[in-house]
Specification:
The structure is a single chain. By secondary structure, this protein is an alpha/beta fold. It folds into two domains: 3-87, Four Helix Bundle (Hemerythrin (Met), subunit A), CATH 1.20.120; 101-291, 3-Layer(aba) Sandwich (Rossmann fold). Helices cover 52% and strands 14% of the residues. It has helices spanning 3-10, 12-24, 33-45, 50-67, 72-87, 113-126, 141-154, 167-180, 198-214, 233-244, 263-271, 292-300; strands at 101-106, 131-136, 157-159, 185-190, 221-227, 249-253, 275-279, 287-289. An eight-stranded mixed sheet has the order 3-2-4-1-5-6-7-8, with helices on both faces. The longest helix has 18 residues, at 50-67.
Amino acid sequence: MSIIQRLKAGLAKSRDGFARRLNSLFREGEVNESFYEEIEETLISGDVGVETTLKLLEELRQEVRQEKIRERAQVKELLQQKIIRLLDLPREEREPDQPPLVILLIGVNGSGKTTTAAKLAHLYRSRGKKVLLVAGDTFRAAAIEQLQIWADRVGAEIIKQQPGSDPSAVFFDALNAARSRKVDVVIGDTAGRLHTKTNLMDELNKIYRVVGRCHPGAPHQVLLVIDATTGQNGIAQASSFNQAVPITGLVLTKLDGTARGGIVVGVQSALQVPVCYIGIGEKMEDLNPFDPHAFVSALLD
């Protein structure tokens, strides 16, 4: 199955919901103010966000006038191009001076961090990399057990401690172990935390500082994991987390569970932080590196 076919299958709810409503507007009819208002309503209802929608429509109106476009199908092509440009942010691919590459996963409770850690481990293992998982969610015994099961399944090593341990100490031990074992990639799970709790954000910042002291230049990627079904609340989460630690990328999980796939456009445009991966299912292979062209094609074609 091609990447487009897999994306179409994973985005089935959004294709039947938000995308179907949007595509229906481009069949026949005049390119007039009523047409633009319908596009605006559909984009906002698809979680693209008010600010991003207004920006898109302003640019769309201007270009339609300049090019003297009369066909709605041509307007759709223009809109797709503009969405791709919005999504095509440069991705910071920081490589360590010395191994390992360190990836830190952060986010609120239930966003899918532990599963994402496992899927990322599978992705790097498929590229022939030696991977170490860090059970940094020491608040939940179930999270440590879950990550151990995933580590066994994907063939990754794991560093863990007893529930209630200091998560910064777990990361300290993990990085020392990674160097001695010649690990290529370290993927750190962290406890879910409400983005409104200052003390929990301070603890996250401590983990970030400890990782940097133990392995200069790390973490090389800080990925905020957002549950796509939470909609616009994901943008508020991201803003708060970005104040605690510098986010380098986003992971949008559970896109297969929402009919409002426009959240990908809304959250990236609002934060100017690139979406690096999207989750479109429960299988190991269902975490995909984000490709704006493939995403827009699968969603709207």
